[in-house]
């Protein structure tokens, strides 16, 4: 089996890329899709693509091949997977940011309350800060 790194290196060889492009293969799209292809390969418990699978992949990337229902379904599956992964990353990032903001607001509230007890604010500043940092009901 050929690894992703080896296959990508092979496809990016100028002579090979030229030959493939001459046969109508979209080499850029092929290289861009290798991550998804090898993700599927690893999900199936394989170490890499065998020769037949690599040739099938290359031949299917020719520009004159019409898209089939199978191709559309595969693209839909890939898009769903990417959206789901992105969603988890975004939610995790937002949760982290909100937790950070919550801790900063808590520190500000505690500092304001401490300054209030020490008499460092006048009444107008206290009312303003209290309206800004009090928890909402």
Helix content: over 70%
Gyration radius (Cα, Å) is: 28 Å
Q: Give the tally of β-strands.
A: 0
Low-confidence spans: none
Structural class: mainly alpha
Biggest beta-sheet profile: none
Distance between the termini: 62 Å
* Overall residue-averaged pLDDT value: 85
Question: Tally the helices: what do you get?
Answer: 6
Coarse shape: rod-shaped
Percentage of residues in strands: under 5%
SSE succession: HHHHHH
Structure characterization notes:
The chain is 76% helix and 0% strand. Helix 5 packs antiparallel against helix 6. The longest helix is centred in the last third of the chain and has 49 residues. It is rod-shaped, with a radius of gyration of 28 Å.
Sum this structure up briefly:
By secondary structure, this protein is mainly α. It has six helices and no strands.
List its salient traits:
137 residues, mainly alpha, rod-shaped
Write the layout of secondary structure elements.
Blueprint: H1 4-11, H2 14-22, H3 27-43, H4 51-60, H5 69-117, H6 123-133
Helix pairs in contact: 5-6
């Amino acid at each position: 089996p050929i690894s992703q790194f080896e296959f990508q290196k092979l496809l990016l060889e100028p002579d090979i890329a030229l030959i493939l492009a001459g046969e109508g293969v979209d080499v850029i799209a092929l290289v861009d899709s290798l991550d998804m292809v090898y993700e599927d390969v690893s999900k199936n418990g394989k170490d890499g693509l065998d020769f037949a699978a690599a040739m099938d992949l290359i031949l299917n990337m020719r520009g004159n091949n019409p898209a089939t229902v199978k191709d559309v379904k595969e693209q839909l599956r890939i898009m769903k997977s990417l959206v789901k992964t992105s969603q988890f990353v975004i939610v995790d990032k937002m949760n982290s940011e909100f937790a950070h903001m919550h801790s900063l607001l808590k520190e500000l509230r505690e500092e304001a309350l401490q300054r209030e007890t020490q008499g460092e604010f006048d009444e107008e500043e206290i009312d303003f800060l209290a309206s800004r940092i009090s928890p909402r009901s």
